[in-house]
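Sanity check record (used in CI):
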Amino acid sequence: MPYSISVKDRMMYSHTFTFGDGVPFTTGCTSVVTATLEGEALGPHEILIDILVAQQLLRECCALYDHKNLDTLAEFRRADSSLMNTTVEVMAKAIYQQLLLRLRSHHAEHSSADGKGLGAITGLRITLEESDVASASYWEANAKGLFT
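Expected output for 6-pyruvoyltetrahydropterin synthase:
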């Protein structure tokens, strides 16, 4: 894509991991979250999205998990009620889904009223960095027309 904007935020959370037959262990994580929005062309006002809007929406998503124990959140339970391992991959997808909902809502509210809709955005990628040498991302292939 020729155009992209990225905004960042961070969140700190605790969670429990269990791998194989291992003993569960609880740990904490501070993740730097980057949301990258892409488009093939600019929309009205020569922007993909108002950067302030993107930052605010990402903050709303991170606030859902910031300073929380993820083990207590229903969205991270399997059908049998067991805990999921909330790896950075899982958290990248959770943020993606939450941000996409908010972006679509923003688009529905603003697309015709003020020309600040998001029809030019054709891609969204979420990257979580858990250190300066390790990160994970989530995006969905063939996401063109996310808001049209």
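The mean pLDDT is 89. If this sentence no longer matches the regenerated tokens, the check is flagged for review.
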